[in-house]
Specification:
The chain has 471 residues and is an alpha/beta fold. It contains 15 helices and 21 strands. Helix 1 packs across helix 7, helix 7 packs parallel to helix 8 and helix 9 crosses helix 10. Bound molecules: nicotinamide-adenine-dinucleotide. The site of nicotinamide-adenine-dinucleotide has 30 residues, from helix 7 and helix 8.
Length: 471
Amino acid sequence: MRTTDTIYINGSFVRPHGKEEAPLFNPATEEQIGTVRLGDEQDVDNAVSAAKAAFASQSQSSKAERIAMLHSLHDAVAARASDLADAMREEYGAPASFVGFSVLHAATAFLNMAKTLESYEFRRRIGHAEIEMRPAGVAAAITPWNSNYGFICNKLATAIAAGATMVIKPSEMSAIQTQLLTECLHAAGLPDGIFNIVNGYGHVVGAALSSHHDIAKISFTGSTVTGRAILQAAAATFKRVTLELGGKSPNIILDDADLDLVIPQVLAAGFANSGQACIAGTRILAPEGRLTEIHDHLAQAVATLKVGDASDPTVRIGPMVSRKQWDRVQSYIRLGQEEGARLIVGGEGRPKGVDRGWFVRPTIFSGVNNDMRIAREEIFGPVLCVIPYRDETHALEIANDTVYGLQAYVFSSDVDRAKRMADRIEAGRVVINGAPHEPAAPFGGFKQSGIGREFGAAGLESFLEPRAVLS
Ligand code: NAD
């Protein structure tokens, strides 16, 4: 049993003022593996004061100094990559492929932002105005459990590049991972107060940050429901907000696609991170003329996916993060059947031969229409819908008929044709034929998938305020 009983304020590990404790679990065994002592409003005040004091010098730091900080942070995180990977597997059960990507992505977030910073001009001229891009002020980051390291590192990298300081509230379910990451960030030796990390519940620590009068900017990743609450709380003091929220991404197979090539990628997008991914391609849009063929390919491919404890590197689908999440996914599998959809593969309960752990059978429904709740609501588990379409126009209608707009996938043997489709999809990112992540390109959602963008220059500018001096 591990006890996490410190938070990080002004360059030191300190005991929180808050006294409440929360249990931590290994989702593959359902066993409690630790406890975390949580912060409260007083801890938020202390952390914000430290960040505010540090802002005075950080906001005046040079580009070269910030780049050096980002490199130190990268080195410190990369140095403990294997410990970070172990903690992620144990506390969260992510499969090996995602753990590998996630830890690397977290460390390189600092290098990517350093590269953006090198070529970014903080001063420029427009007509007779001199423009200066100034740091927005003390920022707060509020992050979810489903990629704890990546979200913390990317948000912190962006704040540092902008000359801002930060208070970070990670998910209360990721405290073992957070503790390890905080040790790495501390080892980078940055001046005190530039970043502060307060564990705590959303309705306590998250809410206190969202309404704090000394916080100028909030960068949030999490559910649309929480994003709405943060936006409302932030409105009183007109905080700048970046919200990275949920999705129900279309995963469009065009009629010319080579299914042998495409189906594994369709499933990789749909079951990304055991289905616990905001960008998961959960609505598979299939041409009517090839529906039976697509069902067969999907069923065969899913049968080869190994579900189990992520300590086995061949496992493709790990457990759900919590009992609550397992129950929620089960309720959607039940709901799909009640709504009249047909199971191609999977169903309720644990996979055959598994008697403990929050494991779900990878599930695909056919006979789904886009009005069903399983096609409209974010399930956040390995549950996909196949929705048939008549022609490209119909596919686009279905793809865009959602309150979300985070990411979309198009598969075709003709890239130009796929690009023409991409032009008409309402989503912040469209991925053609499984193209890899581009860390300098903007990332974020249309519609209720969020406000603003992260990564690259677009991300950096979300932490900056332009000022024009006219002479
Ligand atoms: P969540 O919204 O429940 O929690 C996210 C964070 O917000 C946690 O730290 C939580 O403690 C905090 N929080 C909760 N209530 C709060 C409140 N009232 N005020 C302030 N903070 C509060 O989300 P989750 O379950 O941790 O993560 C899953 C969700 O995150 C999914 O909806 C997923 O789509 C979304 N997500 C989005 C992205 C993206 O980049 N768009 C990435 C990953 C996850």
